[in-house]
Write a structure and sequence with these properties.
It contains 1 helix and 10 strands, in the order βββββαβββββ. The longest helix is centred in the middle third of the chain and has 8 residues. It is mainly β and 125 residues long. The strands form 3 sheets. Strands 1, 2, 3, 4, 5 and 6 form a 6-stranded antiparallel sheet that branches. Strands 7-8 form a two-stranded antiparallel sheet. It has a two-stranded antiparallel sheet with strand order 9-10. It folds into 2 domains: 86 residues, no CATH class; 25 residues.
Length: 125
Protein backbone atom coordinates (compact mmCIF):
# COMPACT_ATOMS: atom_id res chain seq x y z
CA UNK A 1 0.00 0.00 0.00
CA UNK A 2 1.25 3.53 -0.74
CA UNK A 3 0.06 7.06 -0.11
CA UNK A 4 0.16 9.99 -2.50
CA UNK A 5 0.57 13.16 -0.52
CA UNK A 6 2.10 16.57 -0.99
CA UNK A 7 2.46 20.02 0.48
CA UNK A 8 1.95 23.01 -1.81
CA UNK A 9 1.22 26.73 -1.71
CA UNK A 10 -2.27 27.92 -2.52
CA UNK A 11 -3.93 31.20 -3.32
CA UNK A 12 -7.59 32.17 -3.17
CA UNK A 13 -8.93 35.46 -4.53
CA UNK A 14 -11.61 36.74 -2.17
CA UNK A 15 -14.85 38.33 -3.34
CA UNK A 16 -14.29 41.91 -2.20
CA UNK A 17 -14.66 45.33 -3.80
CA UNK A 18 -13.70 48.70 -2.34
CA UNK A 19 -13.06 51.78 -4.45
CA UNK A 20 -10.13 53.94 -3.27
CA UNK A 21 -7.78 56.72 -4.27
CA UNK A 22 -4.38 55.03 -4.31
CA UNK A 23 -1.98 56.56 -1.75
CA UNK A 24 1.03 55.54 -3.91
CA UNK A 25 0.15 56.72 -7.42
CA UNK A 26 -2.91 58.91 -6.68
CA UNK A 27 -5.18 57.18 -9.22
CA UNK A 28 -8.80 56.18 -8.64
CA UNK A 29 -8.78 52.37 -8.31
CA UNK A 30 -9.93 49.43 -6.19
CA UNK A 31 -8.53 46.84 -3.79
CA UNK A 32 -8.12 43.18 -4.76
CA UNK A 33 -7.97 40.96 -1.65
CA UNK A 34 -6.52 37.45 -1.67
CA UNK A 35 -5.40 34.80 0.77
CA UNK A 36 -2.28 32.63 0.54
CA UNK A 37 -1.83 29.37 2.46
CA UNK A 38 0.02 26.06 2.64
CA UNK A 39 -2.03 22.93 2.00
CA UNK A 40 -1.50 19.21 2.65
CA UNK A 41 -3.09 17.01 -0.02
CA UNK A 42 -3.78 13.28 0.20
CA UNK A 43 -4.47 11.57 -3.11
CA UNK A 44 -4.73 15.06 -4.72
CA UNK A 45 -7.50 16.10 -2.30
CA UNK A 46 -6.71 19.15 -0.14
CA UNK A 47 -7.08 18.06 3.49
CA UNK A 48 -5.47 20.62 5.76
CA UNK A 49 -4.65 24.33 5.28
CA UNK A 50 -2.35 26.40 7.48
CA UNK A 51 -0.25 29.58 7.46
CA UNK A 52 -3.07 31.70 6.05
CA UNK A 53 -2.03 35.23 5.19
CA UNK A 54 -4.13 37.98 3.67
CA UNK A 55 -2.96 40.55 1.12
CA UNK A 56 -4.40 43.55 -0.69
CA UNK A 57 -3.26 44.60 -4.15
CA UNK A 58 -4.24 47.91 -5.74
CA UNK A 59 -5.68 47.70 -9.24
CA UNK A 60 -3.77 50.72 -10.55
CA UNK A 61 -0.06 50.41 -9.65
CA UNK A 62 -0.27 46.86 -8.19
CA UNK A 63 1.19 47.86 -4.84
CA UNK A 64 0.86 44.96 -2.39
CA UNK A 65 -0.09 45.38 1.26
CA UNK A 66 -0.26 42.89 4.10
CA UNK A 67 -3.80 42.89 5.54
CA UNK A 68 -4.61 42.55 9.24
CA UNK A 69 -5.53 38.89 9.87
CA UNK A 70 -8.80 39.65 11.69
CA UNK A 71 -10.02 41.84 8.80
CA UNK A 72 -8.94 39.21 6.26
CA UNK A 73 -10.89 36.50 8.10
CA UNK A 74 -14.02 38.67 8.11
CA UNK A 75 -13.70 39.26 4.36
CA UNK A 76 -13.18 35.51 3.78
CA UNK A 77 -16.43 34.83 5.70
CA UNK A 78 -18.25 37.18 3.32
CA UNK A 79 -18.82 40.09 5.70
CA UNK A 80 -19.07 43.59 4.30
CA UNK A 81 -15.92 45.27 5.64
CA UNK A 82 -14.38 48.66 4.92
CA UNK A 83 -10.57 48.38 4.85
CA UNK A 84 -8.97 51.23 6.79
CA UNK A 85 -5.37 52.49 6.27
CA UNK A 86 -4.42 51.17 9.74
CA UNK A 87 -5.39 47.63 8.59
CA UNK A 88 -2.72 47.69 5.87
CA UNK A 89 1.05 47.32 6.01
CA UNK A 90 2.84 48.17 2.79
CA UNK A 91 5.30 45.44 1.81
CA UNK A 92 8.62 46.91 0.81
CA UNK A 93 11.93 45.52 -0.34
CA UNK A 94 14.99 47.76 -0.81
CA UNK A 95 12.88 50.93 -0.96
CA UNK A 96 10.31 49.84 -3.53
CA UNK A 97 7.02 48.02 -3.17
CA UNK A 98 6.91 44.25 -3.65
CA UNK A 99 4.86 43.26 -6.67
CA UNK A 100 3.10 40.04 -7.47
CA UNK A 101 4.87 38.03 -10.18
CA UNK A 102 2.76 35.91 -12.54
CA UNK A 103 3.90 33.07 -14.79
CA UNK A 104 2.79 33.67 -18.39
CA UNK A 105 2.65 29.93 -19.00
CA UNK A 106 0.59 28.47 -16.12
CA UNK A 107 -0.69 31.62 -14.33
CA UNK A 108 1.00 30.84 -10.97
CA UNK A 109 1.37 34.00 -8.83
CA UNK A 110 4.02 34.61 -6.19
CA UNK A 111 5.53 37.38 -4.09
CA UNK A 112 8.89 35.58 -4.09
CA UNK A 113 11.71 36.71 -6.36
CA UNK A 114 12.03 33.48 -8.39
CA UNK A 115 13.77 33.36 -11.77
CA UNK A 116 11.73 30.30 -12.78
CA UNK A 117 8.15 29.31 -12.03
CA UNK A 118 8.00 26.72 -9.19
CA UNK A 119 4.92 25.11 -10.81
CA UNK A 120 5.90 24.65 -14.47
CA UNK A 121 9.58 25.68 -14.69
CA UNK A 122 9.17 28.49 -17.24
CA UNK A 123 11.30 31.65 -16.85
CA UNK A 124 9.41 34.45 -15.08
CA UNK A 125 9.54 37.88 -16.71
Amino acid sequence: MFFLMGITNGRKDLNFNQVITCPVCGLYSNYHVYMTYMVLSLFFIPCFKWNRQYYVETGCCHTVYGLDKSVGKRIARGEQVQIQPEDLQRLQNAGYSVRMRKCSSCGFRTLENYDFCPKCGQRLS
